[in-house]
Write a structure and sequence with these properties.
With 88 residues, this protein is an all-alpha fold. It is built from 5 helices and no strands. It has one domain (14-83).
Length: 88
């Protein structure tokens, strides 16, 4: 069974890396949810019958946590391995 996991691309991971990976992914999802909740009000105002215009600078600032969360989610494995490389 161990050989099959190695061929499938799974690497052996210690406990510290698993915990760090879970916390980093939780923080990334937190940033994504935070950004979506910031932009939800503007989206509802934009789709309302009054059609309130959205300032592009303010909207881009509200999307920064989304971009940070997506980047953190994408690189979570590398960050977790980097943080726990000395704990073995």
């Amino acid at each position: 069974m161990n050989g099959a996991n190695r061929r499938a691309g799974f690497l052996p991971v210690n406990v510290y890396t698993k915990v760090a990976l879970s916390i980093i992914r939780l923080a990334a999802f937190g940033f994504i949810i935070f950004s979506v909740s910031l932009c939800a009000g503007d989206l509802f105002l934009y789709l309302s019958p009054r059609h309130v215009p959205l300032p592009p600078v303010l909207l881009s600032l509200k999307c920064l946590p989304l971009l940070f969360g997506l980047a953190l989610l994408w690189k979570s494995r590398a960050v977790a391995v980097h943080l726990t490389k000395d704990l073995d």
